[in-house]
Predict the structure.
Amino acid sequence: MTTLTLALSKGRILDDSLPLLTAAGIAPTGDAERLLRLPSQNPDVSLLIIRATDVPTYVAYGAADLGIVGKDVLLEHGGDDFYEPLDLGIARCHLSVATRKDSPLVHGERPFKRRLRVATKYPNLARRHYAERGEQVEIIKLYGSMELAPLVGLADVIVDLVATGNTLRANGLVEVEKICDISSRLVLNKAATKLKHDALHGLVDRLRAAVETRRG
Ligand code: ATP
Ligand code: PRP
Protein backbone atom coordinates (compact mmCIF):
# COMPACT_ATOMS: atom_id res chain seq x y z
CA MET A 1 0.00 0.00 0.00
CA THR A 2 1.32 3.48 -0.86
CA THR A 3 1.77 5.77 2.12
CA LEU A 4 1.30 9.53 1.91
CA THR A 5 2.66 12.34 4.07
CA LEU A 6 0.64 15.55 4.40
CA ALA A 7 2.32 18.73 5.75
CA LEU A 8 -0.04 20.99 7.68
CA SER A 9 0.55 24.58 8.75
CA LYS A 10 0.15 24.69 12.51
CA GLY A 11 -2.08 27.28 14.16
CA ARG A 12 -5.00 28.87 12.37
CA ILE A 13 -4.81 26.72 9.21
CA LEU A 14 -4.61 23.47 11.16
CA ASP A 15 -7.67 24.49 13.21
CA ASP A 16 -9.64 25.45 10.07
CA SER A 17 -8.53 22.28 8.24
CA LEU A 18 -9.84 19.85 10.86
CA PRO A 19 -13.43 19.59 9.53
CA LEU A 20 -12.08 18.92 6.02
CA LEU A 21 -9.53 16.38 7.27
CA THR A 22 -12.27 14.62 9.24
CA ALA A 23 -14.59 14.51 6.21
CA ALA A 24 -11.74 13.09 4.11
CA GLY A 25 -10.97 10.44 6.77
CA ILE A 26 -7.51 11.77 7.66
CA ALA A 27 -8.05 13.71 10.93
CA PRO A 28 -5.07 13.53 13.32
CA THR A 29 -5.34 10.76 15.91
CA GLY A 30 -2.40 11.87 18.09
CA ASP A 31 -1.72 15.04 20.08
CA ALA A 32 -1.62 17.70 17.33
CA GLU A 33 -0.57 20.31 19.93
CA ARG A 34 2.71 18.59 20.76
CA LEU A 35 3.63 15.92 18.22
CA LEU A 36 5.36 17.09 15.03
CA ARG A 37 4.61 13.91 13.15
CA LEU A 38 1.46 11.99 13.89
CA PRO A 39 -0.86 9.35 12.49
CA SER A 40 -4.24 10.08 10.96
CA GLN A 41 -7.49 8.10 10.93
CA ASN A 42 -6.18 6.55 7.71
CA PRO A 43 -3.19 4.22 8.39
CA ASP A 44 -1.77 5.11 4.96
CA VAL A 45 -1.65 8.86 5.63
CA SER A 46 0.64 10.50 8.19
CA LEU A 47 0.69 14.17 9.12
CA LEU A 48 3.48 16.67 9.74
CA ILE A 49 2.64 19.74 11.83
CA ILE A 50 5.03 22.54 10.85
CA ARG A 51 5.29 26.31 10.52
CA ALA A 52 3.26 27.73 7.66
CA THR A 53 6.33 29.19 5.97
CA ASP A 54 8.08 25.79 5.97
CA VAL A 55 5.29 23.88 4.16
CA PRO A 56 6.47 24.83 0.61
CA THR A 57 9.98 23.61 1.42
CA TYR A 58 8.81 20.21 2.75
CA VAL A 59 6.58 19.67 -0.30
CA ALA A 60 9.12 20.95 -2.85
CA TYR A 61 11.80 18.54 -1.53
CA GLY A 62 9.36 15.62 -1.28
CA ALA A 63 9.67 15.29 2.52
CA ALA A 64 5.87 15.65 2.30
CA ASP A 65 3.86 14.44 -0.69
CA LEU A 66 1.29 17.19 -0.22
CA GLY A 67 0.65 20.18 1.99
CA ILE A 68 -1.93 22.71 3.12
CA VAL A 69 -0.70 26.30 3.15
CA GLY A 70 -1.90 29.88 2.71
CA LYS A 71 -1.77 31.47 -0.75
CA ASP A 72 0.20 34.32 0.88
CA VAL A 73 3.01 31.91 1.73
CA LEU A 74 2.92 30.41 -1.79
CA LEU A 75 3.07 33.85 -3.42
CA GLU A 76 6.03 34.80 -1.24
CA HIS A 77 7.80 31.48 -1.97
CA GLY A 78 7.27 32.00 -5.73
CA GLY A 79 8.36 29.61 -8.47
CA ASP A 80 6.61 26.51 -9.75
CA ASP A 81 7.95 23.88 -7.36
CA PHE A 82 4.56 22.16 -6.93
CA TYR A 83 1.06 21.69 -8.31
CA GLU A 84 -1.78 23.60 -6.66
CA PRO A 85 -4.95 21.66 -7.56
CA LEU A 86 -7.40 22.82 -4.90
CA ASP A 87 -8.53 25.99 -3.12
CA LEU A 88 -9.72 24.77 0.28
CA GLY A 89 -11.59 28.01 0.98
CA ILE A 90 -10.37 28.17 4.60
CA ALA A 91 -8.39 30.84 6.53
CA ARG A 92 -9.81 33.46 4.18
CA CYS A 93 -8.41 36.97 4.32
CA HIS A 94 -6.80 39.40 1.90
CA LEU A 95 -3.47 41.11 1.42
CA SER A 96 -3.51 44.87 1.57
CA VAL A 97 -1.42 47.98 1.73
CA ALA A 98 -2.27 49.99 4.86
CA THR A 99 -1.06 53.22 6.39
CA ARG A 100 -1.85 55.60 9.28
CA LYS A 101 -5.31 57.09 8.91
CA ASP A 102 -3.78 60.59 9.19
CA SER A 103 -1.15 59.93 6.49
CA PRO A 104 -1.24 62.01 3.27
CA LEU A 105 -0.79 58.69 1.46
CA VAL A 106 -4.48 58.01 2.20
CA HIS A 107 -5.31 60.78 -0.32
CA GLY A 108 -2.68 59.64 -2.82
CA GLU A 109 -0.28 62.47 -1.85
CA ARG A 110 3.44 61.79 -1.52
CA PRO A 111 5.03 64.67 0.44
CA PHE A 112 8.58 63.23 0.25
CA LYS A 113 11.07 62.48 -2.53
CA ARG A 114 12.67 59.32 -1.11
CA ARG A 115 11.46 55.80 -1.89
CA LEU A 116 8.35 54.59 -0.13
CA ARG A 117 9.23 52.49 2.93
CA VAL A 118 7.21 49.29 3.07
CA ALA A 119 7.27 47.06 6.17
CA THR A 120 6.16 43.49 5.60
CA LYS A 121 6.55 39.81 6.31
CA TYR A 122 6.29 39.30 2.50
CA PRO A 123 9.33 41.08 0.94
CA ASN A 124 9.24 39.25 -2.43
CA LEU A 125 5.52 39.69 -2.85
CA ALA A 126 5.61 43.37 -1.86
CA ARG A 127 8.57 44.12 -4.14
CA ARG A 128 6.79 42.40 -7.06
CA HIS A 129 3.59 44.33 -6.36
CA TYR A 130 5.33 47.72 -6.58
CA ALA A 131 7.60 46.64 -9.46
CA GLU A 132 4.50 45.79 -11.52
CA ARG A 133 3.54 49.46 -11.29
CA GLY A 134 7.09 50.60 -12.00
CA GLU A 135 7.86 51.79 -8.48
CA GLN A 136 11.05 50.93 -6.61
CA VAL A 137 10.42 50.82 -2.88
CA GLU A 138 12.49 50.22 0.22
CA ILE A 139 11.39 46.95 1.79
CA ILE A 140 11.73 46.52 5.55
CA LYS A 141 11.37 42.84 6.48
CA LEU A 142 9.53 42.18 9.74
CA TYR A 143 8.43 38.89 11.32
CA GLY A 144 5.21 40.04 13.03
CA SER A 145 3.23 42.97 14.48
CA MET A 146 3.57 44.86 11.18
CA GLU A 147 0.92 47.35 12.32
CA LEU A 148 3.43 48.96 14.67
CA ALA A 149 5.82 50.05 11.91
CA PRO A 150 3.89 53.11 10.58
CA LEU A 151 2.99 54.19 14.11
CA VAL A 152 6.62 54.58 15.17
CA GLY A 153 7.92 55.95 11.85
CA LEU A 154 9.72 52.76 10.82
CA ALA A 155 7.74 52.57 7.56
CA ASP A 156 5.26 54.61 5.50
CA VAL A 157 3.01 51.64 4.74
CA ILE A 158 2.66 47.96 5.55
CA VAL A 159 1.78 45.05 3.29
CA ASP A 160 -0.10 42.61 5.51
CA LEU A 161 -3.08 40.30 5.84
CA VAL A 162 -6.48 41.71 6.74
CA ALA A 163 -9.52 39.65 7.75
CA THR A 164 -11.98 41.55 9.96
CA GLY A 165 -9.96 44.78 9.85
CA ASN A 166 -10.00 44.90 13.66
CA THR A 167 -6.20 44.93 14.03
CA LEU A 168 -5.84 47.85 11.60
CA ARG A 169 -8.67 49.83 13.27
CA ALA A 170 -7.32 49.21 16.77
CA ASN A 171 -3.97 50.68 15.67
CA GLY A 172 -5.33 53.71 13.79
CA LEU A 173 -4.45 52.34 10.34
CA VAL A 174 -6.55 52.17 7.14
CA GLU A 175 -6.34 50.09 3.98
CA VAL A 176 -5.30 52.10 0.95
CA GLU A 177 -5.08 49.26 -1.56
CA LYS A 178 -6.16 45.64 -1.76
CA ILE A 179 -3.54 43.43 -3.42
CA CYS A 180 -5.34 40.06 -3.59
CA ASP A 181 -7.64 37.59 -1.84
CA ILE A 182 -6.02 34.83 0.22
CA SER A 183 -7.18 31.35 1.27
CA SER A 184 -5.47 28.04 1.99
CA ARG A 185 -4.46 25.78 -0.87
CA LEU A 186 -3.61 22.12 -1.32
CA VAL A 187 -0.16 21.71 -2.91
CA LEU A 188 1.33 18.52 -4.36
CA ASN A 189 4.93 17.42 -4.82
CA LYS A 190 5.43 17.07 -8.57
CA ALA A 191 7.28 13.72 -8.48
CA ALA A 192 4.66 12.23 -6.12
CA THR A 193 1.90 12.98 -8.63
CA LYS A 194 3.59 10.42 -10.89
CA LEU A 195 5.13 7.96 -8.41
CA LYS A 196 2.11 7.86 -6.06
CA HIS A 197 -0.50 8.81 -8.65
CA ASP A 198 -3.47 6.68 -7.53
CA ALA A 199 -3.09 7.19 -3.77
CA LEU A 200 -2.44 10.92 -4.14
CA HIS A 201 -5.30 11.58 -6.53
CA GLY A 202 -7.65 9.49 -4.38
CA LEU A 203 -6.86 11.76 -1.44
CA VAL A 204 -7.16 14.94 -3.52
CA ASP A 205 -10.61 13.74 -4.68
CA ARG A 206 -11.74 13.09 -1.08
CA LEU A 207 -10.57 16.55 -0.02
CA ARG A 208 -12.26 18.12 -3.05
CA ALA A 209 -15.53 16.36 -2.14
CA ALA A 210 -15.18 17.63 1.46
CA VAL A 211 -14.67 21.21 0.21
CA GLU A 212 -17.69 20.96 -2.11
CA THR A 213 -19.91 19.54 0.66
CA ARG A 214 -18.82 22.37 2.96
CA ARG A 215 -19.64 24.97 0.28
CA GLY A 216 -23.10 23.36 0.00
P1 ATP B 1 4.36 31.74 11.53
O1 ATP B 1 4.31 31.34 12.98
O2 ATP B 1 4.98 30.70 10.64
O3 ATP B 1 4.89 33.13 11.27
P2 ATP B 1 1.74 32.80 11.45
O4 ATP B 1 1.88 33.32 12.83
O5 ATP B 1 1.58 33.79 10.33
O6 ATP B 1 2.86 31.75 11.07
P3 ATP B 1 -0.98 32.11 11.46
O7 ATP B 1 -1.27 33.45 12.05
O8 ATP B 1 -1.60 30.89 12.04
O9 ATP B 1 0.53 31.80 11.43
O10 ATP B 1 -1.34 32.27 9.93
C1 ATP B 1 -1.16 31.21 9.04
C2 ATP B 1 -1.88 31.50 7.76
O11 ATP B 1 -3.25 31.79 8.04
C3 ATP B 1 -1.38 32.70 6.96
O12 ATP B 1 -0.30 32.30 6.13
C4 ATP B 1 -2.62 33.09 6.18
O13 ATP B 1 -2.77 32.28 5.01
C5 ATP B 1 -3.75 32.78 7.17
N1 ATP B 1 -4.12 33.94 8.01
C6 ATP B 1 -3.31 34.77 8.69
N2 ATP B 1 -4.00 35.71 9.38
C7 ATP B 1 -5.29 35.46 9.11
C8 ATP B 1 -6.49 36.06 9.55
N3 ATP B 1 -6.49 37.10 10.36
N4 ATP B 1 -7.65 35.51 9.16
C9 ATP B 1 -7.65 34.44 8.34
N5 ATP B 1 -6.54 33.82 7.88
C10 ATP B 1 -5.37 34.33 8.27
C1 PRP C 1 -2.86 38.40 11.25
C2 PRP C 1 -2.39 39.56 10.37
C3 PRP C 1 -3.06 40.76 11.02
C4 PRP C 1 -4.34 40.17 11.57
C5 PRP C 1 -5.48 40.57 10.68
O1 PRP C 1 -2.09 38.41 12.39
O2 PRP C 1 -0.96 39.66 10.35
O3 PRP C 1 -2.28 41.31 12.05
O4 PRP C 1 -4.21 38.72 11.54
O5 PRP C 1 -6.68 40.05 11.15
P1 PRP C 1 -7.94 41.02 11.41
O6 PRP C 1 -8.12 41.88 10.20
O7 PRP C 1 -9.10 40.08 11.63
O8 PRP C 1 -7.63 41.82 12.63
P2 PRP C 1 -2.09 37.21 13.44
O9 PRP C 1 -3.34 37.25 14.26
O10 PRP C 1 -1.85 35.92 12.72
O11 PRP C 1 -0.85 37.59 14.30
P3 PRP C 1 0.68 37.74 13.87
O12 PRP C 1 0.98 39.23 13.95
O13 PRP C 1 1.39 36.92 14.89
O14 PRP C 1 0.88 37.19 12.47
In short: The chain has a mean pLDDT of 96.
